[in-house]
Structure formats: C-alpha cells, structure tokens
C-alpha cells in the first residue's frame, strides 16, 4: 500500500517536471516570436543597421551569415567527410585509432571562445588574414569538423555490410567501393548531418567575434567583383554575422530601438535555425527515396 | 565501338592508384584534425604560460589573488573572482538541469515510452537548436527583470547566469540520459516488475543504480558546455570583478572577462597575457571534463 502511494507520487512528480520542460520550450519560442515577429519586415531584413538613430535593419548581417555558412561548408565538407570515411573504412582498431578518437572528442569539447581566440592568434595575426570572412570560416570549420567527422563515420558504418562485400566480390578497389557504392547509400544521412551542423554554425557567435570581427563595412550590393573592398563577395573583408549582431545590440546597443532590433533579429535567427532543422529531415527523406527507389 | 580499339590500362595499375588516392586523401583529413588540436593546445598554452614565465606573475597570485585590477598602479592580476564565478555558475546550472533532465529522460523511456518520446524528443531537439545569443537575449529580457522584481537589486548576477545556463544544457543532459536509459537491457526491468516492485521502486533501486555512470556522463558533458559558454552568461551576469558573496550579486566568469576585455588590450601586454592564461584554464578544464567522461564510460562498461 505504501509502496504504491510512493510510486504514484514519484510518477506524478516526474510527469509534472517533464511537462515543465515542454512548457519552458513553448514559453521560450512563444516569447521570441511574440517579441520579435512584429518587428520583422522587408525593410528590416534588407536595410543596414543604424548605430545611433532608430529604424536600422539587419540586411548585411543576414547576408554575412549566409555567405559565411557557404564558405565554411566549402572547407568542412571535403575535410569532414574525408576524416569520417577514414574512421569508418580505413582505421583499424588499435592505439592510433583510439588516439584519433580522443583527438576528435577533445576538439569537439573545446569551448567555442577558445577556438575563436586561437583563430585570432593564428589566422588573424600570424597569417595576416585580419578580421575577415576567411578567418571566420576557418575558425568555424575547426568548430564544426569534429561533429562532421562523427556524423560521417556513423553514416558509413550504417551502410549494410553486404553492399561492401558485393563490391569486393566484383574486384573493385576500396576507394571505388567507397565512392560509388557506400557514398550514395550514406548520402542521405550525410546531408542531414551537414544541414544540422549548418544550423549550429549559423547561430555560433563566440568563435566569430575574434575572427570575422564585430563590424561590417558599408556594402555595395551592386558590386559583385570579389576583389573590390566594398563588394559583399569579397572574402577578405570583416563581417559581422547575425548572431554577433544580436550580442552586440544587447550588450552595447545605444540606439533608441535596440531592444526591438535585438528581438527582431533573435526571431529571424531562431526561425532560420528551425528551418535548417526541419529541412534537414525533409531533404534527408527525399534524397533517401531518390537513392534507394523505395517509397 | 571506339572503346574496344583503345588499349585498356592494366587493371592492377588502375586499382593501385585508386587505392592510394583514397588512403592518402582521408589520411590527410585526419592528420589535419590532429595538427589543429595540437596547435590549439600549443598556441594557447604558450601565450597563457608567458604570463608566468615572462611577466613574472606567480601562478599562486593568478589563481588565488582576489583582486583584478590590470590597469591600476600597481596592477593586480588575481583571477580568483572569475574562476569562482565560472565554477559556481556551472555547478548550480548542473544542479538545476540534472534532476529536470533525469525526469524528462525517465518520462520518455519509463513512464510513457511511445507518446512521451513523441512529445519530448522534438521539444528537446528544438531547445538544443536555439543559439546561445538568443538564450542571452531571453535571459536579459525575461529572467533578469523577473529576478529584479522578486528579489530587488539589479537582477543581473550569478542567479540569472546559472538559470540561463541550466536551460541551455538541459537538452544535452536529457538526450544523453535518455540514451543511457533506453540502452538498459530489458530483462533487468522485467525481472524487477516480476518480483512485484512498483515502477518507482524499479526506477529507484534498479534502473538508476545500474545506469548511474552513464547518467553522470550526461551531467559532466552538460557542465563542460556550461563552463565554456561565453556570450549568454556574459549578457546576464553583470561582469563585476570581485568574488561574489551572494547569488544576486553581479559577478564574472572566465569566459565573460575574455569576451569583454580581449578586444581592448594590445597583444603581448601583461593584461592581454593574463587573459590568455584564463583561456588556458578553460583549456585545462576541457581536458578535465574529457578525462571524467572517459572514466565514467569505463565504469559503465564493467
């Protein structure tokens, strides 16, 4: 009798606390949307920020975030997929492999601010890249690589063994098997993992403050020559991203509407990150259907 | 037609090259990872240690000094306020998040396995997708005013910092704990029920003790994330350079000081080097957390 009462009390406590978490989540999302969505307009999304007077937008920041994401993916996809393939297909169990595993684990546990500082020291100062999109993209690549390696390894390990054995039976080389048999099968999970990682890159700020910089030069969106200093495509210009902008507006915003700008920008950021997460699942399913001809 | 006339390259040679491109390419990727990790450690350590070896500040003064006044005359480089700030916020955040995470994980795996997972799993994934600056923004516009209206004062401080961190690490803690619980062999659970134990007795006497190392792994990974988090904490903690005496007092963490001061100091100055020493403390703590996770995993296997 007593044990049953305790059981009931414990169960209800667990249920209440679990629902509490759902309420926190709905509250957070609701709050961000409630505060921010009214401020989002075409003008807000496209115009440049105003430092002292109101009415500024987040146009350049939004562009910088997207451009930086593309640059980062150009660096991380070949390296991350390659590293993951090594871990799944070439690495033999032993001391060296477990050492590499430790390296990946340590690298993924480094705080992003430490990676930002490393970028400041090596990329910005030593290599003379300055506060630039390139520095930011390389720092984000470091931040992102361990995650990419891990998801790639899992994707390749999940491919049924028979597929590989069939390839070996045909007398194909290992690399041929990897690129033409395993890669297509693993591709849906690879794409899903990459998009999910992109969501994380998109919201990252601490690693970027010291590498991509906290300012954006006035951009001329009619100038698409990547070498001119005011061109949005120039990879050697400083670039403040959306997440960094939110931080800056919140902690040192002096404009009259800095609270609204922060709220609007936060809502845009959250909507984009959610879009990344949802599209990752959707695209993964579509590609899977294409690749495997299953319904 | 034409194909037949062309002399084909010997199969063996073609294979040979294909084999080596793959091997070399993927190995370069892995070597790159190793080089990056070691260069991070090397650069941060060489910068961080120069405070002690070049600028002549003793390690005990840095780790134990209560006064941080790098611009004063004489200058003081005591990082104790920030070290305590980091540890207190991390521990409190873990204390709040672990029971909540455990309840959520139990809810998903033990109480309503099917439906509970359907409700909570997406919720947790969404929470983990929210960027840290947005958490900072929420802290600044919800938690700080709330604390201000309840307890008075400014509202910024350790309490606000650890509440924000607790929500941030909740997804990490919950998902790892849920994985640990669902990996438990079914037989254990069923034999406990067969003995007539209630669900709570099963959870409390069988499930939690057997999965404890794995559950703690979740807590440690959450703490690692909280310890290294910079911007969200910096926005709500107030950033005052003294050892806090109450939870509602403004304080600083290692990350928040680095964030605020790194841009305003010149490379190579003592002040700048002291900030690098703090980064080194962060780095060392990362290794401590990794070692802790490894130890827990080893216990889990036995």
UniProtKB/TrEMBL annotation, chain B:
Primary site of residence: membrane
Origin organism lineage: Bacteria, Bacillati, Bacillota, Bacilli, Bacillales
Intracellular or extracellular location(s): Cell membrane
Family per similarity comment: Belongs to the binding-protein-dependent transport system permease family. CysTW subfamily.
Known role: Part of the binding-protein-dependent transport system for phosphate; probably responsible for the translocation of the substrate across the membrane.
InterPro entries registered for this protein in UniProt: MetI-like, MetI-like_sf, Phosphate_PstC, Phosphate_Transport_Permease
Gene Ontology CC terms: plasma membrane
SUPFAM superfamilies per record: MetI-like
Keywords carried by this UniProt record: Cell membrane, Membrane, Phosphate transport, Transmembrane, Transmembrane helix, Transport
Membrane-topology annotation of the record: Multi-pass membrane protein
One GO process term, biological-process aspect: phosphate ion transport
Residues that span the membrane, as ranges: 20-45, 75-108, 129-151, 157-181, 202-224, 274-296
Pfam families: BPD_transp_1
Protein's recorded name: Phosphate transport system permease protein
Species per Swiss-Prot/TrEMBL record: Paenibacillus amylolyticus
Domain ABC transmembrane type-1: 83-293
